[in-house]
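Retro notes, item 3 of 5
We never archived the inputs for the magnesium ion complex last cycle. Fixing that now. Sequence and ligand:
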Amino acid sequence: MTKQEISRAQRETVNVLLEENRVFVPSDAFQQQAIIHDESIYAEAAKDREAFWGKWAGELDWFKKWDKVLDWQLPFAQWFVGGKLNASYNCLDRHLKKGLGNKTAIFWEGEPGETKRLTYNDIYCAVNKLANGLKGLGVIKGDRVAIYMPMIPETIFAMLACARIGAVHTVVFGGFSADSLKERIKDAQAKFLITADGGYRKGKVLALKETADQAVVECPTIEHVLVVRRTGQDVLMRQGRDLWYHELVDKAADYCEPEPMDAEDMLYILYTSGTTGKPKGIVHTTGGYLTGVAATTRWVFDIKPEDIFWCTADVGWVTGHSYIVYGPMAHAVTQVMYEGSPDYPQRDRFWKIVEKYKVTIFYTAPTAIRTFMRWGTQWPQGCNLSSLRLLGSVGEPINPEAWVWYHQHIGHGQCPIVDTWWQTETGSILISPIPGVTVLKPGSATKPLPGIEAVVLTQEGKIVEKGGGYLALKSPWPSMLRGIYGDNERYKKTYWSRWPGMYFPGDGAKIDADGYFWLLGRVDDIMLVAGHNISTMEVESALVDHPSVAESAVVGITDEIKGQAIAAFVILKEGHKPDSQADETLKGHVAKKIGAIARPQKIIFTAELPKTRSGKIMRRLLRDIAEGRALGDVTTLADTHVIEVLKEKYQEEA
Ligand code: ATP
Ligand code: MG
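Structure as it came back at the time:
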């Protein structure tokens, strides 16, 4: 369905009903100003995918042009074979050459309230010096450097300094425990660790260096630990091993020649967030990755020189890698970087930041949106959000209720929302609206981007024209993972063994009559109730659709008669009582929205849900609780206390 196919009359209203789906048509004004404003880009890509990607790769600066766009030896891809480039050169040097050195790159805001404005020149200087410092300590091309940092500019300097000298960074989210850090350093055999004394979160100081010390004792590969002074707290510096960042860069020379990297040289390893099990070290290389993130930054976020972009993700996740560091910086974007939590000192911190910096494009996660809904509209209402022109969502399916709330209360009923589906493995966004072109449906990530061949398959691998099944990708794309670090077998088995020649992301999806994709979450989370496939996502959406519900997580539990029955963990909004009447009302509401088949057998009211550090619900653990099993791997859980409380509660009610 294209914008042109929607009648004028329908366009007058923001939300109209179309085949039971609400649609939102971007305004003519938005379309006219958009970088991508007509849909010919899809046809162009479909006509000759390699030529199309070659054209977008050509937007980067290459030291040597590639000989061949793609070499595909299933499941191993090489993109832009023979090409040479450097990621830090593309994010910095080339902007300076165009006279953009004085452009603001980052408005940084620390949680306690201090601010910094950094220009592209400033970042260029910092990165060159750090690159020389690292070289002086013996870091060479191909070495792995672990980065365990808070959300401060030095984290970006560290990533780009590694890229400059050809070292492979592996960023570990600063909220991870010593064990999680240790596990990742060991797997990557990192030689070097960059950390900080501490960081601020919810008004408290995190002891990063102390945690890093606990990890590093058991990591014999680490030769040096470089420490940024952020909080000024006391830390132990081990003689010979530990060095202060500021002392190293003070002495370092101003210019470091960027290493000409092969397009297929490794840029980074990033461990997946760990919702499903043992983290996998996802490998990304240079040329294809940069092409993918740079192209999608323009298509999806429509970023122009005057925009103020804010992606709220932590740099420790792939979203931060692709849409704080490499994508936006490749385009000399001005962005906001915030160190802390959204409710410090008050629940309007994000909106205060939007107002203060006049943010125009805002990109966050459904878990945050649902939290804002729970906190109430008074927080955004108290701030001027009129600078916003485009909103984005990533990380989980966004339920229509949250979409509409986001649209109304943050996007003042005007901003298109780009619901972006992708993974650590995909490197860049693959399924998403192009806001100047796509008619939006709340809850749908809409369509595969140009050059991306996504399909929905049955278990047997047949293409589903309309209905539910498994998401799959039919062909390689430039920013795809090149493997799991050190484990080709696991790479083949996890992603390429389900159907011949198809990439399997592990997610379920539904395709509707207009060819729109509705992501249903992980296939492991899909329930089989009395012979029907029901996704946890659909039941959760139905629950959140009820005015009393703030958030919910649904799992399938073994049932002798139906095969599986549905158990729902529910967080009520402030002011609602978790009593037997609420229980009946909600069960009835789900039955009415989806059908009697989806009526939950059990509702467990709770105050919190177990989530990963990136904010995703860990249904795997809820299933363990509901089925009375020992809990699986809990290392990536944000708060282990939540699970203890739930366990007790579940047993009480069982
Ligand atoms: P692990 O693979 O270790 O279990 P993870 O899958 O949570 O962790 P990520 O790569 O950060 O790690 O997340 C990618 C997953 O997030 C996707 O496979 C999908 O399940 C979900 N996801 C991301 N964006 C969306 C979206 N817009 N709509 C629906 N689901 C999404
Ligand atoms: Mg995953």
